Structures are given as C-alpha cells and as structure tokens.
Amino acid sequence: MGNFQGRHYECMSDCSDMSSYMSRCQSCRVESGCFMVYERPNYMGMQFFMRRGEYHDMQRMMSMGMMFDSIRSCRMIPYHRGQFRMKIYERDNFGGQSYELMDDCDNIMDRYRMNDCQSCHVFDGHWLMYEQPNYRGRMMYMRPGEYRSFRDMGMSGMRWMSMRRIMDSCY
Questions:
Q1: Which of 15, 89, 103, 139 is geometrically suited to a Cys-Cys bond with 119, CB 3.0 to 4.6 A?
Q2: What is the chain's Cα-based Rg?
Q3: In this predicted model, what pLDDT tens digit does every residue of 97-147 receive, in sequence order?
Q4: CB neighbours (10 Å) of residue 135?
Q5: Could you tell me how far CA 138 lies from the centroid of its own chain?
C-alpha cells in the first residue's frame, strides 16, 4: 500500500531486513538525514538515495530514478564533516588508470578520458556512484573503505561513469 497506509516501521539506524516488520514497503517518509534503500535484504541489489522528504508511492520514487518496487533494507548515511577524497581505478584490484577526486565528477570520460571504473578507495566522506554521466541511472553508495572489485559486490556488467559527494545539504 502506498500513501503511508497499512503497517509501518520506524527506522532510526541501519536495517538489514525489513521483512520481519512488513512484507512490502510502498511508501517512505525521511524525517531527518539521508538513507540508502535497497531492493533486497542485507543491503544487496539495486540502491536508491533518499534525503529528507515524503515518498508517497513507488510510482513517484520510480519516476525519480528508483528501479525497484519495494524497499527490503536500508542504511543510514552518517553526516560527514571535513574533506572528501576518493581514488578511482579503471580495473579491478586497483589496476589501470587511477585518479583522485575531491569533488563531484559528472563524467569520468570527459574529465579523465577514463572508460570505466571497476574499483576504488574511499579515504574520506560518503559518495554516490552513478552508472551514467550527469548523475543518472543506477547508483551505489560508497563509504570509507577499499572496494577492490565492483563485480564481486554483485555489480558485474555495471559501468560507473559519475560520482557525487553526499554533502550536508541533505541533513
């Protein structure tokens, strides 16, 4: 049910499996902060970024770029103060061309002449990676850490072409 009807569950932190609280999540209200929501339990499958606001129904969320019809898990994105820094690599295991980013990049092909990004190391901040230039298409949340192979993360066949910092404007 959309439009905030039926059972509800209030989430104030990460939730790896919503099925014990409800069978389907068809609407969502983010009262503060930012969340990444996932198509499957345990933060797997396709992802969608949600900032403060009301998401009345799946049709509206899908028109905003969400590519699945029910939320199964969610992760709260902590507020980050300070610099943002990420190094992207053309190939798995930090191979091929590499570039360091400290700000948003709307197109890695135009900026770096890089065809693909298959691994990265996030040093500082929280980032969203997008499959298409100009922050479009499927997305993936990246928090500080090493990501040696996007393919091993279940993202085989995906190309990541733009990256954006998750800034305080959503808090």
A1: 89
A2: 16
A3: 999 999 999 999 999 999 889 999 999 999 999 999 999 988 999 999 999
A4: 19
A5: 8
